[in-house]
């Protein structure tokens, strides 16, 4: 078992249960665009994916409509979405232990950086991380692969340092593969088990407790 020096965490569905606020904000944006959507399962698929990709894929919006949808979503989420976040049970304790062991913890999320930082501040988790790398408000959306590469570069992670990406969607695993690092896929988040298995992660964790065992296990 590899001991990791640097741990990149996805946010939504990995550290936090953020579904209610995200879905409400997506429904608000769609409603403003004249689209009524009550299928919650369909909207869950938006989580962890660049918004413009989801709006265009699921509702056949053109680029202008999709960008308007993003604007509406972000305004509503800024107003009401932050307070709907909750850390999964055991996550604060895990971050505290990893931090005490000297691990470098980084957030790598497609959520806009300012929103990610505000969520972490609200949950009193921000101080555990050396950096928060997310999407930009002035772009249509940044891929998870670009986010992970940027996080590794900005944090000056060297090849000698063992790094791992922890997330709940295939995009997290694909980004790790593309960046030459290991991945741990958590199955308690928003990605389906089939999606995660097909992405071929290095490890899987069915619970926060299993994630803790993978990240804190002694080398063998």
Task: Kindly provide the radius of gyration, computed on alpha-carbon positions and rounded to a whole number of angstroms.
Answer: 17 Å
Q: What is the name of the CATH superfamily of the largest domain? A: HAD superfamily/HAD-like
Lateral strand order in the biggest sheet: 5-4-1-6-7-8
Number of strands: 8
Main sheet attributes: strand count, strand direction, barrel closure: 6 strands, parallel
Q: Give the overall pLDDT as a whole number.
A: 93
Write the element-wise H/E pattern from the N-terminal end onward. Answer: EEHHHHEHEHEHEHEHEH
Instruction: Provide the CATH topology of the largest domain.
Output: Rossmann fold
Briefly, what CATH class of the largest domain? Alpha Beta
Q: What separation lies between the terminal Cα atoms?
A: 6 Å
Residue share in helix? 40-55%
Second CATH tier, the architecture of the largest domain: 3-Layer(aba) Sandwich
Strand content: 15-25%
Number of helical stretches of at least 4 residues: 10
Approximate shape = globular
Number of domains: 2
């Amino acid at each position: 078992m590899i001991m990791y020096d640097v741990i990149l965490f996805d946010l939504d569905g990995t550290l936090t249960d953020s579904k209610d606020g995200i879905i409400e904000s997506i429904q608000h944006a769609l409603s403003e665009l004249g689209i009524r959507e009550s299928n919650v399962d369909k909207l869950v698929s938006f989580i962890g994916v660049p918004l413009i990709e989801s709006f265009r894929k699921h509702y056949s919006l053109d680029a202008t409509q999709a960008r308007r949808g993003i604007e509406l979503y972000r305004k509503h989420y800024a107003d009401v979405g932050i307070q709907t976040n909750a850390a999964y049970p055991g996550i604060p304790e895990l971050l505290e232990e990893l931090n005490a062991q000297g691990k470098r913890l980084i957030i790598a999320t497609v959520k806009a950086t300012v929103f990610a930082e505000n969520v972490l501040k609200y949950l009193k988790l921000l101080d555990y991380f050396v950096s928060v790398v997310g999407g930009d408000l002035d772009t249509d959306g940044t891929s998870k692969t670009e986010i992970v590469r940027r996080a590794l570069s900005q944090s000056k992670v060297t090849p000698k340092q063992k790094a791992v990406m922890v997330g709940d969607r295939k995009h997290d695993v694909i980004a790790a593969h593309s960046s030459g690092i290991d991945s741990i896929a958590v199955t308690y988040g928003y990605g389906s088990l089939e999606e995660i298995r097909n992405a071929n992660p290095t490890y899987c964790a069915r619970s926060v407790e299993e994630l803790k065992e993978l990240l804190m296990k002694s080398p063998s």
